[in-house]
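Let's sit down with a protein and look at its sequence and fold side by side. Go ahead whenever you are ready, and we will take it from there.
>
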Amino acid sequence: MKKDDVCDVLIKMKTMRFLIPGFSDEDQVRQLYEESDGADKTLYLVYIRLVNNIQKFDSDVNAEKYAWMLLWTRVFNALQDALILRNTSTTLTIQMLLRSIGDIQRIVLLLCKSIEPIVDSTVNVDVLVNRMRDYAVWCLWSDCKAIRDQSDYRSTRKVFDPNPLKEMKNQKLFQEMYPNFIQMETDPSKLKKQREKYEADLYSQIKSIEDIVNDLGLKGLWDYLERKGDQHKSYIEFTIDNNTSVKKEMAENDIRFGYSEYMKQSNIIHGSTAMEMIYHHEDQYVLRINEPDKIVAQKINALSESLLVLTNNLSIICYAMGWD
């Protein structure tokens, strides 16, 4: 990096701010909280606490706050999905959301364990800071890795090359499966321009990520991941430098009982489940497309409790970092 670039980075670090959008009327949400019960009440409580956390948050940017904001945004989005899913007739999407939340819980639990116990309102936050910086750079590097794969010529060969496109376009099966693509472009000169624009957009995204890395002072960690990132399977393995399995990790954190549900939810995401799609009842195989209200309610309750735990843990991190 050139000296002038370093100066630009320092200026950006001083001037960048988080842009936090507005939220639903707080009085209205509190009224809904007072009038509801069960899982609904828990979900509205999560909403209130998440909004309170973000409203107290200092908008100045650093790597640790960026990491916390990544987690907060994931939790808030999951909450919004949960509020919508209350009226569903199937548990499929709920289970997939629970699996996603499970991965967030693993990350947040690791962060919280780095600051146990908090004694006399003081704590050595060095480990927490390092793990949060690791999380920020891991997420950015993972995004960049995916974009680079998109920009690989082999990934787009049948998207912008005229000969394969013409061959596919003339195949009857392709025409039946993708009727909207019958009018796809096959002119070489036009496809070349489309490819150039596509690649320019991807390179712009990569440049934006690299700018964020520099702005947040994560260049050293980024360079390490560029060299050795493929040796790590996950953020948790990267930040604590081991390859502990999810099962062992949960057992060490006294939540081994949750691994079976984690596996079931993984099977749903990967399309590797039969019993979650079709169950056997007497002399029938029943398709699980309209679940009993009781079953859906149980899953929504589990979802609301998981979100509440996550929200409380994000508050603990704020407290430890002195942001609250």
The chain has one domain: 3-321. Residues 1-14 have pLDDT under 50 and may be disordered.
